[in-house]
Amino acid sequence: MTDTATFPLTFTTTPSATARAAAEREEILADPGFGKYFTDHMATISWSIEEGWHDARVVPYGPLRLDPAAAVLHYAQEIFEGLKVYRHADGSIWAFRPEANARRMQRSAERLALPQLPESAFVEAVKRLVEADSEWVPSAPETSLYVRPFMIASEAFLGVRSAHGVDFHVIASPAGAYFPGGVRPVSIWLSQDYTRAGRGGMGAAKTGGNYAASLLPQAEAYEQGCQQVVFLDAEERRYVEELGGMNVFFVYADGRVVTPALSGTILEGITRESVIQLAKERGHAIEERRVSIDEWREGVSSGDITEVFACGTAAVITPIGLLKARDFQAGSLDAPAGALTMSLREELTGIQYGRREDHHDWMLRLA
Ligand SMILES: *Cc1c(COP(=O)(O)O)cnc(C)c1O
User: Fold this and answer.
1) Residue 101 alpha carbon, nearest atom of ligand 1
2) How far is the C-alpha of 231 from the C-alpha of 153, rounded, in Å?
3) Does residue 236 sit in the same domain as residue 316?
4) Taking the CB of the first residue and of the last residue of the chain, which one, N or C, has fewer CB atoms within 10 A?
5) What are the start-end ranges of the E strands in the chain?
């Protein structure tokens, strides 16, 4: 979409008058959980068809004023991102590949007929928010500040067309260790009744609708005693796509690392891309191709597949111990997490937390 705004945008800052006291913040940071507590500020940039992107601001965190006719509430014209910000041992604060999130949000915007926010404005909004709320970046091992940029159709109009008024917001939430008791393999439920995305649909866009579609199968997974659900392709119901919010990898006995190819129905994870890069550098052959559910099942049973893991920003890399379906199971929760799985996890988190050198220039210093 065309854009008349001039960049860089100038951000204004309105400090919160009700910012949490240091003692209260420290209490929250001692056990933040995930997505429960939010920092004192938020960043917002508005867009209109007349003005383009304008009015960039950091303001006190609080409820949005949204007209009940706002298009997002009716037609789900919404996209989001998720990235983490880490405190290094020297106190400095870094984001992992925020430009990649900015570019992915542009691709999501295109699919959802939303305006594209320039990469620099996205990164600047994240930076301004983290600067304002830098004390909210925790320092305990495996903790981070989870940053959630999102864009919504805020125009009050019930006609069905792309909105002429849109808002981009960034909020942030301190996140505790995903596996407080140490990394443990998870069990995965195979969704045979529901699919996540069809060809030509929104599967490659990070949009709330995909998550809404995954909630019922996710509930089914819980009923089956599994933590996560894995989806098959919508056409043949045969090929592994991804989990509700994570990509999936298979490690073969001969060292090959295999992951479902991006087909338009899979979300292109930044963790996925980073894992591919790291595995390549270690000399593993990488195959991005279709993987049938039979290949998974038979590979695990025969020993051809030695490790299976899922990856995404929230949990980084999660070993998958057990695949459970209506009429079969493969793997076991008793087996320890795979060696490559754990070693890649250590390497990636090492880069993120500044314990390892960042050869790829993935980290961006924010404060
Ligand atoms: C966000 C997301 C992922 C993981 O992407 P990362 O960039 O690695 O966090 C995978 N699948 C879906 C459906 C997602 O929404």
Assistant:
1) 7
2) 29
3) yes
4) N
5) 12-13, 41-48, 52-60, 78-80, 83-87, 93-96, 144-153, 165-175, 186-190, 228-232, 240-243, 247-252, 257-260, 286-289, 305-312, 316-324, 329-331, 363-365
Ligand 1 atom index nearest CA of 210: 13
Same domain, 207 and 151: no
For 240, the domain range is: 186-352
Of the residues 81, 108, 111, 313, which should be mutated to test ligand 1's pocket, given the most ligand atoms within 8 Å of the CB?
Answer: 313
Q: CA-to-CA distance for 230 and 64, rounded, in angstroms?
A: 34
99 pLDDT higher than 60: yes
Domain count, the chain: 2
Predicted pLDDT at 2: 46
Cβ < 6 Å from ligand 1: which residues? 82, 206, 210, 242, 245-247, 267, 269-272, 312-313
Longest dimension (CA), the chain: 62
Residues 204 and 167 in one domain: no
- 150 and 289 co-located in one domain: no
Enumerate residues 6+ apart whose C-beta is below 8 A from 220.
189, 191, 193, 194, 229
Only one residue has tokens 């996925």, namely 272
Our mutation pick for probing the ligand 1 site, out of 210, 246, 317, counting the most ligand atoms within 8 A of Cβ, is: 246
Specify the residue for token string 């991102």.
81
- Measured from the Cα of 270, ligand 1's closest atom is 7
Summarize pLDDT for 284-332 with one digit per residue, the tens. Answer: 999 999 999 999 999 999 999 999 999 999 999 999 999 999 999 999 9
Q: What is the pLDDT of residues 108-151, one digit of tens each?
A: 999 999 999 999 999 999 999 999 999 999 999 999 999 999 99
**Count of H helices and E strands in the chain?**
8, 18
Alpha-carbon distance of 88 to 86, in angstroms, equals 6
20 Cα to the center of ligand 1, angstroms:
31
